Amino acid sequence: MKNLNEQKRPLEQPETVRTLRLWQMIYLGKGTFARQLFHAFICVALRLFFRRIEAAGVEKVPKDGAIIFVLNHPNGLVDPGLVFVSLPRRVSFLAKSTLFDIPIGGYLLRLIEALPVFRRIDAGADKEKNQFTFQNCEELLARGRCIAIFPEGISHNETKLQPIKTGAARIALGSLAVGKDNTELVQNGLKIMAVGLYYTSKTAFRSEALIRYGEIFDVEPIELDENGEPPRDEVLQLTQKIEDALQNVTLNLENTEELETVARAEALFSSVYENLIFKQTLTQTFLRLQDLADKYKLLGQSNPAKMEKLRERIEKYESNLQTSGLTVESLSVLQHPTAYVFRYLILRVLVLLLLSPLIIVGAIIHSPAYLFSNLLGHMITTHGADAVGSTSKILAACVFMPLTWLIFAAIVFYFFGWQFAFLSIPLLVICGYIALRSFETLIDMRVWLKSAWFLLRQKALFLRLLVQRETLQREISEMIKK
């Protein structure tokens, strides 16, 4: 692993940052009609679960040629789903073999051309069968296709990358081995690209997700050893290169406490710049988190007393905000003139009043499905050794929401006939979406109203908190620049 002093991550991102819209994600579907239909279904499910999905650096992905994408794996089936719907290339994933034993799940995995990986930690898995998976990977790469691998080998809740397995390196080197029937692949080249996945919250409904396409590098051909395997030293060397590339597109902290400290500092820092008009990209937030994480580690090594003092000051400031009933976002809202904030609120109140019949209908009808999906997400947090909290919620919603529409349509059909039943389904979908967006607006408005009320009652305390925030922000800024 690189020394922290050698890691230079600029806060200015050179890559293009895109907020993915539903139609853009659906447009990227490749393959058979059934595969494209399933692709569209995944797009809708993910776009509803996440309030914002952002892709950075996707323009760096070559339009043709063999590529192995290597990804971190913090969030179960959501991770491959996000890359599946954001890549402009047709990609095949390596997935744990036990998923292929699920009747419907196995069919869908084969539909998107996923390949099984037989892991030692999965009961009943035969590791010897991995040789066939490796052969299938080599065949796909020889045809100029893409495969995606999670080299950590497990979906987890840790705050940093887990030890990288050698499978990705072995597949890459095995595909380019001298003496194999792979002349075209050797001539055209094989690349490995690191992809980092980041979530503002893995399991919270309407959180945000970032896909970062990072370093891409060529794999050099090698000769196999006497056992017909890539030499161990070459495998370990390439594995280390993969790990270094993944480190640069992921957030890595030693523990949850360190992650919370860095997240607080970043929220405090960025709140000075965010307001009702301007919102930073998720990529900017992530890059700052990365940079702060590195600086905190260095400060902890060189001056732990100063780091601890800064952490305590941030916690004390947050405690003062909570006592006052405010958040860092509240202060940003009130940087606008009071008249502007109230005009902003009044317009949204009028819109909500106009849409209130649809909002009420959508909320009442969809709330049982929402509650059941949430409950299952809390109950089913693991599948074997893998963390699957978000996956459980999304899969449950994919069952309960359509079931809700069908039950309601059946009731309408019983009383009013098939014409009204047919029209009720799209109307329900629209009502549900309007209710969803309206509740998000109400949550935002609650913050604004509390902030405005606080400013009217305790202007002196508000100004003091604002000054304290700016002082802490300057200290954090100086730490970033050093």
State the main characteristics:
Glycerol-3-phosphate (1)-acyltransferase; 2 domains; two-stranded antiparallel ribbon; 10 strands
Structure description:
The protein folds into two domains: 4-252, Glycerol-3-phosphate (1)-acyltransferase (3-Layer(aba) Sandwich); 253-482, no CATH class. It has 16 helices and ten strands. α2 (33-49) crosses α3 (78-86) and α9 packs across α16. The chain has 482 residues and is α/β, with parallel strands linked by helices. An eight-stranded mixed sheet has the order 1-2-8-7-3-6-4-5, with helices on both faces. The protein has a two-stranded antiparallel sheet with strand order 9-10.
CATH topology of the largest domain: Glycerol-3-phosphate (1)-acyltransferase
- Structural class call reads alpha/beta
Secondary structure: helix percent: 55-70%
Strand sequence of the main sheet, in spatial order? Answer: 1-2-8-7-3-6-4-5
Distance between the termini: 22 Å
CATH architecture heading of the largest domain = 3-Layer(aba) Sandwich
Radius of gyration: 25 Å
Q: Strand count, sense and closure of the main sheet?
A: 8 strands, mixed
Give the strand content: 5-15%
